[in-house]
Automatic annotation (TrEMBL):
This is D-proline reductase proprotein PrdA. Its EC number is 1.21.4.1. Pfam families: Gly_reductase, SAF. The keyword Oxidoreductase applies. Residues 23-81 form the SAF domain. One of its GO terms (molecular function) is D-proline reductase activity. Coiled coil: none annotated. Keywords: Oxidoreductase. InterPro entries: D_pro_red_PrdA, Gly_reductase_pB_sua/b, SAF. It comes from Thermovenabulum gondwanense. It comes from the Bacteria.
């Protein structure tokens, strides 16, 4: 596959290999050369072997071939006109700039108008400068006036707090099923009959089972995990400000199958022993000591791959959580075991940055709910598919207050669950970094059709430009189809002169299928030793350590620091070395 002049410029120091049969006498152009990006694959397959004396693309462009060569032949000095001499770099002669000596002449006083000083420079061919004499002859202010005058102090620029969110945590020590829903003395009781009542939320939800998995009993089978959902509720104000109550020590785990027993998932599922199929402690997963309230929903047969099927399971699950929210709202502030205050801050004078999070929006089982009425809820929110997947801006606090409910059923290892957004590491790190001014978090859906992908991506580029930012980070979950628009997002931002960093799982199984010149600062999320979709929940998702690398890379790029290109193939040691460097800075 031939390359463009732009690609040739990017890879001018890479080996020159002809892409097709090239006849003697051909003047080499980019159209005659193979793309260096695919060299590793060609070498692995035995189709290409690059010799030590191969010339670079920059050395051969414009040179004439003296022999006919087959496709995928590396170009060596004996193949081009002039051989070695033709590729030697020639230093361009730089003409010396002669500094003309300026002739200094004495300025003679000339008769002028009152209060004007005129200086005549003879050598300058009659140039005349006129300066009001009042400026030169104004009397000095009296000493007393100088002493009395106060020195003007520079106004101090202070950060502006735009909104404040207070989160009160209430510890759950035990969960049980009972006659009515209550939360007293750390014991959460869930009404047993809710399993029937919650099905009224959507007729496609046919059956519900609720059981409790304690931290010391993880050796139990589970169907594939569709979502992990925090239990939180608004007490004062809308999402992103006011007061929110949240339960700690317990989390909802939603699982699902259809009536024929088919797991509700797309690529990869994590059914199996729950202790082996979850990366406990990851942002989107239960923590090691969490009590898991497992809500298992059976949906109408054949709807698992349609939008309505998974959505019905989420709505039924949310009906259960809503009843728990109602008792949580009533807890007095004095019973909270922890209170955290989050602020949306405008850090005046610091580089303006934006976080862009690409979320699934292909339809079918790929969707998300944006800004529900309750934290991490479903009701009242808007699915991004219904919004046309166009970019939607949330404040950092809206994200941290459960502004996204994840409906996506992609592979579990790289899936960002609802709890992930509730504890999103990049949002937290950027929002608390006093060297940066996080202006917002943009959520943009990934449509199915390429035409729609590029339309949405162009709107994202225009939005980011309008925000007037100095840098951006773009993340995505999953891999494959969504990498098309992920790459386009980076290009649309980068082409507007904005430094941008990309964050994704790629490694071995999720290798990027597209690219562009702006994808020169990428953060790898893989944590599987083989670089695979491991089918372990949360295995390859964005974690605090990844966030630190992404922020460090963005700061480096904004500062103009050169970022070295990656190795030709996935190499986890590069990730590990970068992590060591970054952790030294953050003292992690």
């Amino acid at each position: 596959m031939s390359i463009t002049p732009e690609t040739a410029s990017q890879h001018k120091n890479d080996p020159a290999v002809v892409c097709c049969l090239a006849q003697a006498g051909t003047v080499i152009s980019p159209a005659d050369l193979e793309d260096p990006a695919i060299f590793p694959d060609l070498e692995d397959s035995g189709l290409l072997k690059i010799p030590a004396n191969v010339l670079t693309i920059g050395q051969v462009l414009g040179k004439k071939l003296v022999k006919t060569v087959d496709a995928l032949t590396p170009i060596t000095p004996d193949m081009i006109e002039g051989g070695e001499e033709a590729v030697k770099e020639i230093e361009e002669a730089v003409p010396a700039v002669e500094a003309k000596e300026a002739k200094v002449v004495e300025a003679a006083p000339v008769k002028t108008a009152p209060n004007v000083i005129r200086i005549h420079i003879e050598e300058g061919k009659g140039i005349n400068l006129e300066i009001p004499a009042i400026v030169a002859t104004a009397p000095a202010p009296e000493k007393e006036a100088v002493e009395a005058k106060e020195e003007k102090k520079e106004a101090k620029i202070e950060d502006r707090v735009k909104r404040t969110l207070v989160m009160r945590e209430f510890e759950v020590k035990e969960v049980r099923l009972g006659e009515e829903t209550s939360f007293e003395n750390g014991v959460l009781t869930i009404r047993r009959s809710l399993m029937e009542d919650a099905l009224k939320a959507d007729p496609i939800a046919k059956k519900m089972e609720i059981d409790i998995i304690t931290p010391d009993n993880k050796n139990v089978f589970t169907n594939t995990i569709m979502d992990v959902i925090p239990i939180a509720t608004k007490v004062e104000g809308p999402l992103g400000e006011g007061v929110t109550h949240v339960m700690s020590g317990a989390v909802v785990v939603l699982t699902g199958v259809d009536e024929s027993g088919i797991q509700v998932h797309e690529f990869g599922s994590c059914e199996g022993i729950i202790g082996e199929k979850v990366r406990f402690g990851r942002p989107g997963c239960p923590d090691e000591n969490d009590i898991m309230i497992r809500i298992h929903v059976t949906i109408q047969g054949g709807t698992g791959m349609e939008r309505k099927g998974p959505y019905a399971a989420h709505k039924a699950c949310d009906a259960v959580i809503q009843e728990i929210r109602e008792v949580l709202k009533k807890k007095p502030a004095s019973e909270a075991v922890k209170v955290t205050e989050y602020k949306d801050v405008e850090r005046v004078g610091r580089p303006r940055v934006v976080l862009v999070k690409e979320i699934m929006g292909q339809g079918a089982m790929h969707d998300n709910v944006i800004l529900p009425k309750e934290p991490a809820g479903v009701l009242g929110g808007r699915p991004n598919v219904d919004l046309g997947n166009i970019p939607v801006v949330l404040s950092p606090n809206e994200v941290r207050d459960g502004g996204i409910h994840a409906l996506t059923c992609i592979g579990p290892a790289s899936k960002e669950n609802t709890r992930h957004y509730f504890r999103e590491p990049l949002v937290n790190l950027l929002a608390e970094d006093e060297e940066l001014n996080l202006v917002g978090v943009v959520f943009v859906g990934s449509p199915q059709i390429n035409e729609e992908k590029f339309y949405v991506s162009e709107r994202l580029g225009a939005l980011v430009e309008a925000l007037g930012v100095d840098g951006a980070i773009v993340t995505t979950e999953g891999f494959g189809n969504n990498h098309i628009d992920f790459a386009s997002h980076i290009e649309q931002i980068g082409k507007r002169g904005i430094p941008v960093v990309g964050v994704t799982y790629a490694a071995y199984q999720g290798q990027l299928i597209v690219g562009n010149k702006y994808m020169d600062a990428m953060v790898e999320l893989n944590k599987d030793k083989n670089g695979m979709e491991s089918e372990i929940l949360g295995d390859n998702t964005l974690c605090p350590e990844d966030a630190r690398r992404a922020v460090a890379m963005l700061k480096a790029k904004m500062a103009g620091v050169k970022i070295l290109p990656p190795s030709k193939k996935w190499d986890q040691s590069v990730v590990e070395n970068n992590q060591k460097l970054v952790d030294e800075k953050y003292k992690a």
